[in-house]
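Reproducibility note. Readers wishing to regenerate the assembly model reported in the main text can use the exact inputs given here. Chain order matters: entities are listed in the order in which they were concatenated for prediction.
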Amino acid sequence: MRGPDDAADSASPAGEDLLPPELLDQVGDLEWVARRVARLLAAGAHETRSAGRGEEFERHQPYQQGDDLRYLDWKLLARTDRLYLRRFRERSHLRTLFVLDASASMAFEGGAPVTKLRYGVLLAAILGHLARDAGDAVGLVVAGAEAEAELPPGRGSERWRAVLHALQGVRGAGGGDLGPWLERAGLLATPGSRIVILSDFLEGDDGIELMRSVGHLRARGDEVGAIRILSPEELGRSGGDEALYTDPEDPERLLPAAPGRDPGYLARLDAYYAELSRGLVDRGARWAEVSSADPLLPFLRGWFRAPDRSLRGARA
Amino acid sequence: MVSGAGPIPSGRAGVIELLRPGFLVAGGALALLAVGLHLLRPRTRERKALPTARFLTEDPRSRIRWHRRPDHWSLLALRVAFALALGAAFAGVVWVGPSDGRGVVVVIDSEAGEDLDELRERASAAFAEGSDEESDGTSHAVAVEVRIAVPDASGTLSLATLLGEVREGAAALTGVDSIAAVIMARPRAELWGPGVPELRDRSWPGRIRYERVGPALETGGGGEADGGPEVEAGPEVEAGAGVEAGSEGSAPSPEVVARSEPAELRPPTGLPVEVGAHWVAVWEALPVRSRSGPESTPGTEPAPGPVDRIEVELVTALPDAWASGPDRLWREGTDGASDRSIEGVGAGDGDAPGATRSPRQLLLLDGRRLDGGGEEPAGAPAEGAVIPLLRAGGLPAAAATVTGGVCRIALAIGADAPILAGPELSPLLESLAREGCGLGPRLPAAEVDRALAVLLEREDLPVTVARAELRALPTGGVDFTPWLLVLVLLLAGVEWLRTRRLDRGRRFEGTLTPPSDTNPGPTP
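Running the prediction on these inputs yields the following structure tokens for the assembly.
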């Protein structure tokens, strides 16, 4: 009988759909999920590893033709008369702080097997594991009405477990914009940190405050990454039936509509996010979009392969 | 005044009838409306959450849509039952027990004849002895209730009085499934002119069918009224009688005869007033002899009169040619109101050859005969002379003409000539006979009165005015109206409770329905 480990191990770039988000969601151990996905990511990114640089010795590797002789272990050669290269673990010394939007709009499945919030939790756990494995200090800010976690970046297993525990218990409720939470994140993380925002970015003020906060963070040297998570129904890929629609963050307002028959819906949606993403990118942030129904691995690979390698420091 | 309820043999079995079926049709329409409203209901929309709802626009489609199947069947059934019960309650659903045929209420105007007892007996016998031939060939004997309607002190027989008698007579009939009302009265303008439509629309707990009853005359020269008082009438409405001038012995003796063919004085087509009452005047010849006069001295050859026969006809409107000629014969006097102060009346066509008068004369109600010069002419009217008689106001009421020794007198009857129904009728006819026909003293007033009596109302069944068949509720039937009203109230109460409960349920559900697709979050 195959267990989650087997499924994870058998995953390959060609069969990445075997790790759908619902499967990962059903695995209760978030740390295990993060570790497994990180391992798969490392396997896929093997050719990109920069061996040899860094400060902390990791292991010896048999010499192969073409390897850089600068990392040849001459002492071991003298003792054993064999060629070995010295491999070192690269220390980034970065601080990664995840800002997870836990508003009511994130607690929405919308045709996906998991909610946007749960998808964001999985992403944060995986990225956090990668960052921690790379030696980054990892912290977490849960932006929501029931926010119970404001964990500044820290190293060590204790902090990581606290982050995982906070991610595991996060619930979506309330509303509000991300701008104030980014200001809070700026206080928790020292300048030069890496701040990853996981949200649907449905801002009440069309993102004006958000872009201002991102601008502040970038001005002090922080790296800012924004991952927009939307459900298939929000993206017009499913649903769209005639109904009385309400915004979870504004449940009193009911609107009889049929998104499937509303040709302007997607146009307005795209225009909103185009404007928001342009504003963030113009301020030096990185923008990525993902559907909560998409498998995680392809998105993460795309994230790391993107021209902007600001998060490449979280390497295995 | 009840008499002569005839035997009632067995008739048809009990049936359920509707006194006012139109209300049941209206109830059915109301039920259909309820069904339609149940098919037409608000568009039901599921309440769903969508974080990007801000980018949606309101669906322009109507919030109401037709459904193939009605909702809330029980409520619909209640409402349909309510509508039908309401319609049935007003429709007058009655169960008519086993009946024995049709009854007849005969209401006789107390002034219809001299001998009311005889009238009553004859009416009762005429209907009781007859049988009502049904369309299916079966024959049902009838019960007859004869009542006498007495005019009030002013001589007016009101509709209320008449219908009251009909109602009382109908109530006295038991065990009949329908009631026919036959009203026999002298022609009364206040009743049979504009009153007929009013009678037609009069509220009555049953179906009222009017039949036009024509004269019972079959052949000229009069005879026994063996044709019965009710004969279907054609479109023509006039009947007539004739007064044949004459004297005892060789003298021409005036004789009342009945006309058997349409009179020459037939009113123009398109009668201005539809008169439901028709004149049935004469049954037998009545010799009328002149009492005095220079031409009627016994033993001497009477001087030939200008006319030897007078025919009196009843028309609904005088022919235009009789009412007025090409020349205006009468115009307003200097005082503007009196018809007696005539000056400068047109002479008309001039005197006929050999005539002593103008062919057009004007006869006033007081008997004066005027010609164009305003003088009272003397002598007999010329051949073809038309002598209109005007009542106050200038409207023609009657006219006389003499042609070939026959003087024809047309009496207008109807709403336009109420004078005929009043006390002026007798002097009017006398004036026309004396002056218009030129009989002069040869026709004494008593003979005119007698002829008039024969003509109008003094003998036999003078007038059969209208016949109304009333589908009244006979005694012994069951009226379901009270029960239906109770059912209506009961259904209305249940419907109200059901609707209230449904509304409360909807409100309660509205408070419970959360936005769909809202996930409270991952389960730890």
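We highlight two features of this model. Chain B is about 25% helix and 20% strand. The first strand of chain B starts at residue 15 and ends at 18.
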